[in-house]
């Protein structure tokens, strides 16, 4: 048996069991085409979830701040994950476009063995071995490839802007439901306080009736008022559960418990003038920046279509070494530069150029429309913010006057001058005034968040 065959036979015996035992997925993973699957230990399965910075997420059963809720939402939102994947894909597209300017390197080896048998000829065997290494660089349409890299970079910028815009949208949604839950919880506190007032009123009316100072109808009316306030308190508590469920759903979590969130600090007055707010929106909003980037892409495509009227330059180079018996004895070098001049393309170049120019004009008009929409959005949010800001001092004054009127009505009732209807009206007015103040404050916080979202400074 030939020496070359003797070398191949043990190698074949070693590789055969591995090939028979390996599954297709194992072969793909070993080649790097499929990522390895991590096997979690029991300890890993009970670790808290991590965000994209690999830091533990806040416990939903603990006390949550607004920042905690936003952090959880960004980690759970499919929209945020999709936007992040799109940004990573855009980065890969940039790398692929740049790779067109890089050479390719390959190397290989082969070992063969042939055995020939014939009736009239003696048996012959022959072994051969080859080895080669080569490097190649081929660039066809250099200017087109340069423009392709520019377009891919701009598309990467757009993907990052879309990720920022998605993050801002999620943050705004969380703020909306967060403020709604705070408002609902504050309403429960006010209703509880009002219920205590009606309880005190009922006990006073019952005592006055026992002493013969008030009629039975006052006791009955006070009891009805107390029962009605109990119903309002039940509805207020249910609104807290609903608001908590809405916030949990926006965060991408499921829980039967009411979320325990912290109160926000007083919102500082928004003092930015309207015209400045509009300018900030034009400069900072991700969708405006993405539209401007899209306009740049359209301009590059116009230039690319126009380049079809001009010659195309190409360049290629190659170097290789090869040989038999694993010796690199042969060497080959290739260099080539070419130019291709367009003469007639059945008007494809001309029509393609016209189409690119029309697409550019369409993109330009879309940008103008977007700026108009941004102006209107900022204007609407600014008006809403001003309305909420102007409502707060009036609501505070109403609470003060309603409390004063309640004290006077209670005093008149205790002195036997006023009746229970007057007292009830005063209690209702005071409760409504407190609820209106809570609504005004959280409406202002929500309006400021809307305005910052419209300005792109969320």
UniProtKB/TrEMBL annotation:
Keyword Amino-acid biosynthesis found: no
Record-linked InterPro entries: CyaE (IPR028351), OMP_efflux (IPR003423), TolC-like (IPR051906)
Signal peptide extent: 1-22
Keywords for this protein: Cell outer membrane, Membrane, Signal, Transmembrane, Transmembrane beta strand, Transport
Subcellular location(s) per record: Cell outer membrane
Gene Ontology CC terms, in alphabetical order: cell outer membrane; efflux pump complex
Listed GO MF terms: efflux transmembrane transporter activity; porin activity
Pfam families cross-referenced by the UniProt entry: OEP
Predominant place of localization: membrane
Highest taxon of source: Bacteria
PANTHER family: OUTER MEMBRANE PROTEIN TOLC
Family per record: Belongs to the outer membrane factor (OMF) (TC 1.B.17) family.
Protein name (database record): TolC family protein
Species annotation: Candidatus Avelusimicrobium gallicola
């Amino acid at each position: 048996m030939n020496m070359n065959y003797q070398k191949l036979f043990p190698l074949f015996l070693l590789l055969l069991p591995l090939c028979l035992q390996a599954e297709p997925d194992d072969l793909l993973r070993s080649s790097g085409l499929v990522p390895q699957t991590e096997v979690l230990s029991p300890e890993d399965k009970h670790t808290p979830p991590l965000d994209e910075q690999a830091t533990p997420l806040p416990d939903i059963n603990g006390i949550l701040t607004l920042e905690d809720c936003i952090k959880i939402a960004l980690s759970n939102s499919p929209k945020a994950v999709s936007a992040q994947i799109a940004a990573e894909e855009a980065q890969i597209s940039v790398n692929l476009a740049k790779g067109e300017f890089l050479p390719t390197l390959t190397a290989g080896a082969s070992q063969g063995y042939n055995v020939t048998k014939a009736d009239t000829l003696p048996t012959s065997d022959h072994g051969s071995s080859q080895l080669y290494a080569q490097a190649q660089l081929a660039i066809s349409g250099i200017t087109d490839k340069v423009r392709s890299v520019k377009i891919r970079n701009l598309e990467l910028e757009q993907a990052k802007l879309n990720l920022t815009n998605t993050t801002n949208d999620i943050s705004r949604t969380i703020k909306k439901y967060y403020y709604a839950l705070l408002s609902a919880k504050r309403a429960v506190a006010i209703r509880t306080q009002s219920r205590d007032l009606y309880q005190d009123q009922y006990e006073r009316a019952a005592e006055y009736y026992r002493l013969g100072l008030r009629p039975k109808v006052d006791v009955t009316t006070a009891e009805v008022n107390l029962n009605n306030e109990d119903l309002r308190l039940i509805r207020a508590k249910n609104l807290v559960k609903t608001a908590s469920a809405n916030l949990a759903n926006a965060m991408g979590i499921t829980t039967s418990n009411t979320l325990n969130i912290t109160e926000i600090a007083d919102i500082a007055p928004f003092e930015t003038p309207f015209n400045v707010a509009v300018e900030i929106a034009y400069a900072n909003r991700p969708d405006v920046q993405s539209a401007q980037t899209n306009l740049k892409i359209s301009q590059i495509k116009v230039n690319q279509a126009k380049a079809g009227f001009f010659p195309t330059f190409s360049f290629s180079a190659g170097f290789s070494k090869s040989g038999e018996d694993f010796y690199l004895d042969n060497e080959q070098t290739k260099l080539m530069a070419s130019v291709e001049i367009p003469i007639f393309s059945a008007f494809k170049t001309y029509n393609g150029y016209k189409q690119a120019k029309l697409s550019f004009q369409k993109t330009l008009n879309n940008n103008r429309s977007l700026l108009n929409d941004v102006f209107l959005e900022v204007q609407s949010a600014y008006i809403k913010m001003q309305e909420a800001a102007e409502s707060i001092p009036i609501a505070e004054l109403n609470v003060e006057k309603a409390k004063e009127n309640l004290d006077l009505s209670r005093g008149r009732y205790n002195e036997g001058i006023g009746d229970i209807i007057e007292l009830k009206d005063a209690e209702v007015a005071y409760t409504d005034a407190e609820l209106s103040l809570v609504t005004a404050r959280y409406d202002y916080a929500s309006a400021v968040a809307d305005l910052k979202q419209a300005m792109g400074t969320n």
